[in-house]
Design goal:
The complex is a heterodimer of chains A (about 550) and B (about 375).
Chain A lengths: L1 H22 L1 H8 L2 H34 L5 H9 L6 H15 L10 H12 L1 H12 L3 H9 L4 H12 L1 H17 L2 H5 L5 H10 L4 H29 L20 H29 L6 H36 L3 H15 L2 H14 L8 H26 L2 H9 L4 H30 L2 H6 L7 H10 L3 H25 L8 H8 L21 H7 L14
Helix pairs in contact in A: 1-13, 1-15, 1-16, 1-17, 1-18, 2-13, 3-4, 3-6, 3-7, 3-10, 4-14, 5-6, 5-14, 5-23, 7-10, 8-9, 10-13, 12-13, 13-17, 14-23, 15-18, 15-20, 15-22, 16-18, 17-18, 18-20, 19-20, 20-23, 22-23
Chain B lengths: L23 E12 L2 E12 L3 E5 L6 H9 L6 E6 L2 E5 L2 E2 L7 E4 L11 H5 L12 H9 L15 H13 L5 E5 L7 H17 L4 E5 L2 H7 L2 E6 L2 E6 L1 H6 L4 H6 L4 E4 L7 E5 L2 E7 L6 E4 L4 E5 L9 E9 L4 E6 L5 E6 L9 E6 L3 E4 L7
Parallel strand pairs in B: 3-9, 3-10, 7-8, 8-9, 14-21
Antiparallel strand pairs in B: 1-2, 1-4, 4-5, 5-6, 10-11, 12-15, 13-14, 15-21, 16-20, 17-18, 17-20, 18-19
The chains are: A mainly alpha (about 550), B alpha+beta (about 375).
Chain lengths: ~550, ~375
């Protein structure tokens, strides 16, 4: 069962490699080693490098300041700094372009290119570093820092050699995650007209109808992605041994003296720019209104399209996730590790690559499915399966085998146990996972763009086409809706990261001494965001499948 | 205050089969179990009468939890026979599933159903018609001193209270047997003593038959009517607590249950008055082949040199451990052997020379290795 589900999720990747193989190595090398291809590679890698470096600076500094330094209003700042996660990158790009246009009507002076892409992507990617690092920092055991101080190390020395060393896995993991998202980003670079791999693949496919070239570029992008995923996995494996074995006392807060004012100013500047520009744009263009006839009807139509596709995607993903999640939660072994990795790999693939592979697959193998919502749903399942699997794993941990045994010893038949214990305990978690998949699917752009049935429009595709022709007022309501949708999973992550208030469940576990820690209300997922197995490990059991809840990748 | 509960007749015993021993609730014979050809249980046999309380005592990894899981029906046995009441529930090739055995388990962590209230948990094993507001639920909650807490949710309870609910839940359907799997392991020491007393009283009051699995000798000796000592999957001794302590089956049991110093013993005749390194002692043994004498620290008395009977050897005090209620003194005998003496006060300091005297008979055991 689990293997079948994994196989379904891996169809795009497998088919892509198969086609590339058929194309033959010489042909592949010919398309890959060209001047144009080299330039694309340079742009993509340079963009990823610059954005990742900038995200690391903002993310780590911000995380330390809001968790461990006496910056005024640091709790509020912590939440605000995480919020840019709620702006999908193509929505962000749209708002920046539309705001820049307010002051720059001259043609040719459009806000676009490498620098523009760096600024926009950094401002909406740094939370991938900020959240895991802030979460890890808020869980650092004060005892270790005190031990270092008592052994004669100064405050700065302690910060570098003890505190930051402890959260190093979170920093590295966050950085790799950020680079992964930049590399697979399609919407923002396209709106900002920067030629990267993803945009070139899309152009080659839709404009040039040059499928072979699109295919070669896609395989190259898969290789790059695989490299980053491998690096991320290696860091995480190395990082598990850093995880504190027991929850420690929360550490104290450093007094910055007069430096707290420039620090606060810097953080507020990031928040104001990252959140202010979208706010200004959305307010300005929503108020301006659209001249288009039947604007509401069109919005309703797009919303219905989004709803249909996302619901179908959520259902397909959850159905595939159930056997995989149960396997991962209940059985440990080589097969489980393989399935977990495979699911994870598919999730790391850029949406555009998955879409392209499914286009080929639809045209040549399952023609009846081509141009139907099912193919879109399959793409969503490939992209968001880890969200579903993590939800099932978390839910299964809510109903551990020991509960089943106790129930049986009290005379309940297996069927009765399922109805009276397993279903009530797991349904909320699985439902929450399905809801997250649904929200992620609502925001998905490239796969939807390529695979949707002709004539079907969604919120994301409408925003895309309106931005493409500069009709900002028309695009604004879609952007607003998408930001609101993305806000929900973002809030879940922020709450679970423990930066709003220190993670409460640790204390309960210790005091009770009992293993029955209070179950988290939404035993969903998670997460690259918490960066630590820590208390989650105690509750959810040995899951290694921790991926971002959120998926801004577009 | 607990309500008085009349022990109800249990299914599986009674008039149905008067020919068989009617009072035997649990009967294991020759039970064997292996994991991947590694034997975990070998030829385990034990009998428990109706209403009895038996403790299975052994170090971690001795197979005691596997034994419990086999009795509960979570594991299949490879050989032997398990009967509950007059009904065989496990034979090679026959396996009555756990939910038809009427054996209720109290796991180490309680494993309360987190989505059910305390009353919902306690009523879980009752027939559907009796689940809501049943008198039996209140009765069982009263048994474990939690009357009136039926509406609480498990996470609102302390660890000790959760264990009490887990016991009430196990007692409610009046099972043939209650299995307790190290139920005090997750609690701190002071709580443990109180809970032990209360759980023992509740089991007794309800007339339940119970098996407790533990690695804690205090727990086994103080709670159970009978103790089965398990080592490496085999039963080493099956006796009442005082016998296990006073007349251990071999040197391993002697050193595992309680403090003991083992002196080599070469006497051909294992009974009678024998001259040893601690002076002349009265030796008793269960059978031939004894190789060690078991010296319990409370049997060893020390007096300042020059007082007392003057019969025993003079030893040097090596170490004094003061525990408040008593003191443990380590003594080096003239031949270099170190033995321990437990006394109420601290009678000597390190370096003192004292005369050693052994009180009461000393038990001689065959060699079985050392537990620690």
């Amino acid at each position: 069962m689990a293997l079948v589900a994994t196989a379904v999720a891996l169809i795009p990747l497998g088919y892509l490699l198969l086609r590339a193989g058929q194309q033959g190595l010489p042909a592949w090398l010919d398309t890959v080693f060209t001047w144009r291809s080299g330039r694309l590679a340079a742009t993509s890698v340079a963009l990823a490098a610059v954005v990742t470096a900038a995200s690391l600076v903002i993310g780590v500094a911000g995380a330390w300041l809001v968790t461990r330094a006496a910056v005024p209003h640091r709790r509020l700042l912590a939440v605000l700094l995480a919020l840019p996660l709620a702006v999908p990158s193509y929505v962000a790009a749209f708002t920046w372009v539309s705001v820049a246009d307010l002051w720059n009507g001259a043609p040719g002076g459009r806000f676009e290119g490498f620098a523009a892409a760096c600024v926009v992507l950094t401002l909406y990617t740094y939370p991938y570093v900020f959240l895991p690092v802030a979460s890890a920092l808020s869980r650092v055991d004060a005892g270790q820092e005190e031990a270092a101080r008592s052994l004669g190390r100064g405050p700065f020395n302690t910060l570098v050699t003890v505190t930051l060393a402890q959260v190093r896995p979170a920093i590295v993991g966050g950085g790799l995650l950020a680079s992964l998202y930049v590399l697979s980003d399609f919407g923002a670079v396209s709106i900002l007209r920067l030629d990267t791999y993803t945009r070139a693949i899309y152009t080659a496919h839709t404009v040039g109808f040059n499928r072979d070239q699109a295919l070669s570029l896609a395989t190259l992008l898969v290789l790059l992605t695989g490299l980053i995923l491998w690096g991320e996995g290696a860091t995480r494996r190395a990082g598990t041994r850093y995880a504190s074995t027991r929850p420690g006392r929360p550490a104290g807060v450093a007094d910055l003296g007069p430096w707290r004012w420039p620090a606060a100013t810097g953080l507020w500047a990031v928040v104001l720019v990252a959140l202010g520009v979208p706010a200004v744009s959305l307010v300005r263009w929503t108020v301006a209104g659209t001249s288009l006839a039947d604007a509401w009807g069109r919005i309703g139509e797009a919303a219905a399209g989004s709803l249909t596709l996302s619901l179908l995607g959520a259902v397909v993903t959850t159905v595939l996730a159930l056997p995989i999640g149960i396997l991962v939660a209940r059985h440990h072994g080589r097969l489980t590790r393989f399935v977990e990795r495979a699911v994870y790999l598919a999730h790391g693939l850029p949406g555009i690559v998955v879409a392209l592979a499914l286009v080929f697959f639809g045209v040549t193998v399952v023609l009846p499915l081509y141009q139907t919502s099912w193919l879109v749903a399959l793409a969503y399942a490939t992209l968001f399966l880890p969200l579903g699997v993590a939800a099932v794993v978390g839910a299964a941990a809510q109903a551990p085998p020991s509960l089943e045994e106790v129930g049986q010893s009290l005379g309940a038949t297996p069927a009765e146990m399922f109805r009276r214990v397993t279903v009530p305990l797991t349904l909320p978690g699985i439902g929450a996972g399905a809801a997250l998949v649904f929200l992620a699917a609502m925001k998905e752009l490239p796969a939807t763009l390529l695979l949707r049935p002709t004539g079907m429009e969604t919120l994301a595709t409408r925003l895309w086409s309106a931005t493409g022709v500069g009709r900002y007022a028309e695009a604004a309501p879609y952007a607003l809706l998408l930001v609101l949708l993305a806000a929900v999973p973002t809030w879940v992550i922020v709450q679970r990261s423990g930066i709003v208030r220190p993670a409460p469940s640790d204390a309960t576990v210790v005091e009770d001494g009992a293993l029955l820690a209070p179950a988290p209300a939404a035993p969903l997922l998670v997460d690259s965001v918490s960066g630590e197995v820590g208390n989650l490990g105690a509750v959810t059991g040995p899951t290694t499948l921790r991926r971002p809840v959120e998926d801004v990748q577009s | 205050m607990r309500s008085t509960v009349n022990p109800a007749p249990r299914t599986g015993s009674g008039p149905r089969d008067p020919a068989a021993r009617p009072s035997l609730a649990v009967d294991l014979a020759g039970v064997g179990k292996s994991y991947r050809s590694r034997p975990v249980l070998q030829d385990v046999g034990l009998q428990l009468e109706q209403g009895g309380f038996l403790a299975v005592l052994g170090p971690s990894g001795c197979g005691k939890t596997t034994l419990l899981r086999c009795i509960a029906g979570f594991e299949r046995i490879d050989g032997g026979r398990i009967a509950l009441g007059n009904r065989a529930v496990a034979l090679p090739g026959t396996h009555v599933p756990a939910h038809r055995r009427h054996v209720a388990v109290v796991p180490q962590d309680g494993a309360l159903f987190p989505h059910l209230s305390v009353a919902g948990n306690v009523g879980f094993g009752l027939p559907r018609t009796q689940r809501r507001g049943a008198a039996r639920i209140e009765e069982c909650l009263a048994l474990v001193d939690l009357a009136g807490l039926g509406d609480r949710m498990p996470h609102e309870l302390s660890g000790g209270q959760q264990q009490r609910v887990a016991l009430a839940r196990a007692l409610a359907p009046r099972p043939r047997l209650v299995l307790l799997d190290e139920p005090f392991g997750a609690l701190d020491a002071s709580l443990r003593v109180e809970l032990r007393r209360d759980i023992r009283a509740a089991l007794h009051e309800d007339g339940a038959t119970a098996i407790l699995v533990t690695h804690d000798q205090d727990e086994a000796l103080s709670m159970a009517d009978r103790v089965v000592v398990l080592r490496e999957g085999r039963v080493r001794q099956d006796a009442v607590p005082s016998t296990v302590y006073a007349q251990p089956a071999d040197s391993w049991v002697a050193s595992f249950v309680g403090d003991a110093d083992l002196l080599p013993f070469t006497g051909a005749d294992p009974t009678g008055r024998v001259r040893t390194g601690v002076g002349p002692v009265e030796v008793r043994a269960g059978g031939p082949g004894a190789t060690h004498l078991v010296l319990r620290p409370e049997q060893v008395r020390i007096d300042p040199v020059g007082t007392g009977t003057g019969e025993g050897p003079v030893a040097t005090v090596r170490d004094v451990e003061f525990y408040g209620h008593d003191t443990l003194t380590a003594l080096a005998l003239p031949d270099g052997t170190v033995i321990r003496s437990r006394s109420l006060a601290a009678p000597a300091s390190v370096g003192d020379r004292v005369r050693v005297r052994v009180v009461g008979p000393v038990w001689a055991v065959p060699d079985g290795g050392h537990a620690r």
